[in-house]
Specification:
Number of domains of chain A: 1
Largest sheet of chain B: 3 strands, antiparallel
CATH class of chain A: Mainly Beta
CATH architecture of chain A: Roll
Number of helices of chain A: 1
Largest sheet of chain A: 9 strands, antiparallel
Helix content of chain B: 25-40%
Oligomer: heterodimer
Order of helices and strands of chain B: EEEHH
Number of domains of chain B: 1
Distance between the termini of chain B: 57 Å
Largest interface: A-B, 43 and 30 residues
Structural class of chain A: mainly beta
Radius of gyration of chain A: 15 Å
Shape of chain B: elongated
Distance between the termini of chain A: 38 Å
Strand content of chain B: 25-35%
Strand order of the largest sheet of chain B: 1-2-3
């Protein structure tokens, strides 16, 4: 196990992570194209949310959640091309998350169902998909 | 910004791996074929812009209140 650490924005904490937990996003994220390496951090206080924390480039921390927890019928169309790009071989390789925007009041917080994060857990690679299906909102209420 | 004029069937090459071909023109709508490596994401501009904007808002949002959202989400719903 190779232990590393990163200083996080604002709170001045130093987070420890293992090299093998690093997920690469070859294309970065729209708006953060230079951030190509992230780790997913889970804190019991924030369950079922997790942090997607960039470990290189700009310090970016995004709250993420499994969309099925609040929208069980969420079923975005994922193309064979998308799966191929992430070298997905089995359905069990796949992890789907959506990015959360915390709002005021917090009960009005939303998640981006139009731009889900697709992660190949086995290959530790991810990307943000853009779903051009009108059914899924950029700002879907979580609560 | 470079502005080129092409006829149907003609192409534009960007770098050595991207080729754009004008396929069809119907009224004010144009069908374009894009040949690019998988590592290059291709999206309709306005949709890409929406995602970019929301990513930036999310990154800047009140993440310190995430605990409050989590508490609310964990509460069993009363129907």
């Amino acid at each position: 196990m190779c232990e590393k650490s990163v200083q996080t924005q604002g709170r001045g904490e130093v987070l420890g992570y293992n090299e093998e937990d690093v997920i690469s996003f070859p294309g970065g994220l729209p708006g953060f194209e230079e951030c190509k390496k992230f780790v997913i951090i889970s804190v019991p206080e924030y369950e079922p949310f997790h942090w997607l924390q960039s470990i290189e480039g700009k310090q970016v921390r995004l709250a993420i959640i499994n969309p099925l927890l609040f929208k069980p019928d969420y079923n975005p169309k994922i193309s064979r091309e998308d799966l191929h790009q992430l070298e997905v071989k089995e359905p069990t390789d796949l992890l789907l998350y959506v990015i959360v925007t915390v709002r005021q009041p917090v009960s009005e917080s939303t998640a981006n169902l139009m731009g889900p994060l697709l992660i190949n857990l086995r290959k530790k690679m991810g990307c943000q998909l853009i779903i051009e299906d009108n059914a899924y909102s950029l700002r879907a209420r979580i609560l | 910004m470079l502005v080129l004029t092409r006829k149907i069937g003609e192409s534009i090459r960007i770098g050595d791996q991207i080729k754009i071909t004008i396929m069809e023109v119907e009224g004010r709508t144009i069908k374009i074929a894009i040949d690019a490596p998988r590592s290059v994401a291709i999206h309709r501009e306005e949709v890409y812009h929406k995602i970019l904007g929301e990513n930036q808002v999310a990154a800047a949002s009140g993440n310190h209140d995430l605990g409050a959202v989590a508490s609310l989400l964990r509460q069993p719903k009363i129907d």
